[in-house]
Amino acid sequence: MKNLAAILIADDIKHHITIGGGKAKVQIDSPKHVKIQRGELLRWRIK
């Protein structure tokens, strides 16, 4: 099985993933534009 991040980054489509029962959300807009949100009160962090 391929690495999940590698599969998502290889795609140009936006992905919204819920991790840990909704504790973190990941959105990948492009290979260098990855946003991670943990908790409702935290803002998107771009990596």
The major pleated sheet works out as: 4 strands, antiparallel
Summed up, the helix count is 1
State the helicity in percent bands.
10-25%
Total strand segments: 4
Please give the domain count.
1
Mean pLDDT: 60
Q: What structural class is derived from the secondary structure elements?
A: mainly beta
Uncertain segments are none
Query: Quick one: overall form?
Result: flat
Q: SSE order in H/E notation?
A: HEEEE
Query: Which strand-content bin applies to the residues?
Result: 35-45%
Rounded to an integer in angstroms, the radius of gyration calculated over CA atoms is: 11 Å
Give the strand line-up of the largest sheet.
Answer: 1-2-3-4
Distance between the termini: 24 Å
Outline the secondary-structure elements:
Layout (H helix, E strand, L loop, with lengths): L3 H6 L5 E5 L4 E7 L2 E6 L6 E2 L1
Antiparallel strand pairs: 1-2, 2-3, 3-4
Structure description:
The protein is mainly beta and about 45 residues long. The protein has one domain. Helices cover about 15% and strands about 45% of the residues. It has one helix at about 5-10, and strands spanning about 15-20, 25-30, 35-40, 45. A four-stranded antiparallel beta sheet has the order 1-2-3-4, with no helix packed on it. It is flat. The mean pLDDT is about 60.
